[in-house]
Amino acid sequence: MDQPIRMKNNGQINIVLNAGQREAVIPQPKKEITKKDLSAEHEILKEIEDELGALVGMEEIKKMVKEVYAWIYINKKREAAGLKTGKQALHMMFKGNPGTGKTTVARLIGKLFHKMNVLSKGHLIEAERADLVGEYIGHTAQKTRDLIKKAIGGILFIDEAYSLGRGGEKDFGKEAIDTLVKHMEDKQHEFILILAGYSNEMDYFLSLNPGLHSRFPIVFNFPDYTVDELMDIGKRMLKEKEYTLSIDAERKLRDHLAFVKTTSNPASFSNGRYVRNVIEKSVRAQAMRLLMQATYDRHELMTLRSSDLVFPD
């Protein structure tokens, strides 16, 4: 006579024997986690990595973003397993010269944290000194609190943050710093504060308040772009606009960028922003040249010649 079979929720199969006999338990093998399963589970990371991959350079930044993702992901797994989890604050500092991609990366981090349920919204609120510092006693604290309120659920990104510490003891910038520090503690898991600016200036800024350094456990360093990377950025911008450089124009742009990088103060060179300005001005110059021509074909409409290139003074 066939024995009745009873399934249990734990995946085992129990065969119920005749009266007086014990149940025979046949354990079922656990389902193996395949690479496909892992790939689906980490779809969030893949999406962000694809967007970061579209950016030129930033290899160390891309690695650090993955490390932050891994820390948050494993922490959630530890919590699900009943293990202790770290409640490390995620406030960050971005050090680097203008045009090195700091704002772009901040937006991607907001998007990543929103998808991982670290932030409820993931939006980015950009601010600078004028947005925080008021004109009379008490005004600065209120302006700063209002900005933090707007950033709840997302990221408050303060560019040139070192300017808050430039005015001395009587400057209202100190009041903004004190207000930020208080809310970093009180609402540390409700929003993320990212302070950005030149490397040396940010180091000096941190030295003004010894308690600040420990409150920013994650520091991203954004290096200046090389000439090759700047050319890559320029070509990507042109491709997006459906333009291309002639051979002479490409050579002229490369030589100019090499000259500017070797003769300019690194802190004043705006990297990708500089390249964007050159392209936008050159596109307008090409339009003026074509306007004076009697005829032009598709190739002419797309091509920037060396005579079209316009460099900032």
Automatic annotation (TrEMBL):
The gene is spoVK. One of its GO terms (molecular function) is ATP binding. InterPro entries: AAA+_ATPase (IPR003593), AAA_lid_6 (IPR041627), ATPase_AAA_core (IPR003959), CbxX/CfxQ (IPR000641), CbxX/CfxQ_RuBisCO_ESX (IPR050773), P-loop_NTPase (IPR027417), Spore_V_K (IPR014232). Pfam families: AAA, AAA_lid_6. This is Stage V sporulation protein K. The keyword ATP-binding applies. Keywords: ATP-binding, Nucleotide-binding. It comes from Weizmannia acidilactici. Residues 88-224 form the AAA+ ATPase domain. Belongs to the CbxX/CfxQ family.
